[in-house]
Design brief:
two-stranded antiparallel ribbon, 1 helix, mainly alpha, single chain
Length: 73
């Protein structure tokens, strides 16, 4: 595909995807009583698949967001 015949273009794909069983949470050494975690931990695979499936469906509820895991203060 030629997007612009006047300029050269280089495209590269970079993907870093954790295992579906990876628990996403802050590093333990960064969390303490003075600096509590702002988000609940979650499994990457559950989050990813919920997002992916919801992109192709009309749901009765909003699409899941990382902000949905934010802890209430």
């Amino acid at each position: 595909v030629v997007v612009n015949s006047q300029l050269e273009r280089f495209s590269s794909i970079l993907a870093v995807v954790p295992s579906y069983h990876t628990i996403v949470k802050p590093l333990e050494e960064l969390v303490d009583e003075n600096n509590p975690a702002n988000y609940n931990e979650y499994k990457w695979g559950e989050y990813f698949m919920t997002r992916r499936i919801s992109n192709f469906m009309k749901l009765d509820k909003p699409v899941i967001q990382v902000a949905d895991f934010r802890k209430s203060k």
